[in-house]
Amino acid sequence: MFAPGATISDDILDIGTRRFDEDKRRSMTSTGGTAALCPPSLVFGDPTAFDIPNVSDPAQFCRNNFASVSGNKDAHQTLKFAKGTTTLAFKFNEGIIVSVDSRSTMGAYIASGTVQKVIEINPFLLGTMAGGAADCSFWERQLGTQCRMYELRNRKRISVAAASKLLANTMNSYKGYGLSMGTMVTGWDETGPQLYYVDNDGTRLKGNMFSVGSGSTYAYGVLDVYYRPDLTVDEAIDLGKRAIYHATYRDACSGGINNLYHVTKEGWKKIHAIDVNDMHYEFMEEKKNAMSS
Fold first, then answer.
1. Among 7, 31, 34, 85, which one carries the catalytic annotation?
2. Is 114 tagged catalytic?
3. Residue 247 CB neighbour total at 10 angstroms
4. CA-based, 20 to 30 A from 221: which of 12, 45, 88, 117?
5. Mean pLDDT over all residues of the chain?
6. How confident is the model over 121-180, as pLDDT tens digits?
7. What is the rounded distance in angstroms from the CA atom of residue 143 to the CA atom of residue 138?
8. Neighbours of 147 (CB within 10 A)
9. Cα dihedral sign, 170-171-175-179
């Protein structure tokens, strides 16, 4: 058992690493006991602390029971994170469109239909959520803090490239800890509109169009057909809207509300929040009229 009233230390971040295993062996050799299997100090319920399993070897317990600890491979763990979402963003001549759904799922169970999957980092910078909701929300909000600190220190707004690099560096430092993130960082800076993809492995890609999530293949099918750099604002909004609708129609893990943003040199603006059920009847009526004419 952990000592009552103890506080968590930095040693928690070493669990599962080579350094932790070496320290554990040294401690067991010197004391002849098994106390070193647990971190030296911990308190449960502290909002500023990480809770770990109250077992003799937390690292081994996580390896045996949580699939994310083993990366992408299936090691037959008890708990497997079944996630689903559809997020997309693309650049065009008039700015950037960011369009997402709002469904949060745990396998076949719909946990929420009103998740805000666009993180408003600052008035010129947006991030999207795909993967683990807690991971994406926490680390992108922490990115917002880093961006604000940069502004205070340098008296200028951070670039999109620098913001995405900060997030990628953070993800790289936590690589192998079981995080689940597939995010896009986008916005407008002094170089113009910028769009980056960052994931939990520390991968960072620059591009003109990305879609992330279980419904991304369906969204890409629509985007690949209708995307053009010279789209008008109305055409771009309609494309973002249709791509999310078709993804939610085919992917059971995507759905809810379509939240769509338009980013320009004046900053981002939220265009609409439309129930995908309403879009379904709108597009079905449009298809019916087209077939009858």
1. 85
2. no
3. 31
4. 117
5. 83
6. 999 999 999 988 888 989 999 999 999 999 999 999 999 999 999 999 999 998 877 788
7. 9
8. 21
9. positive
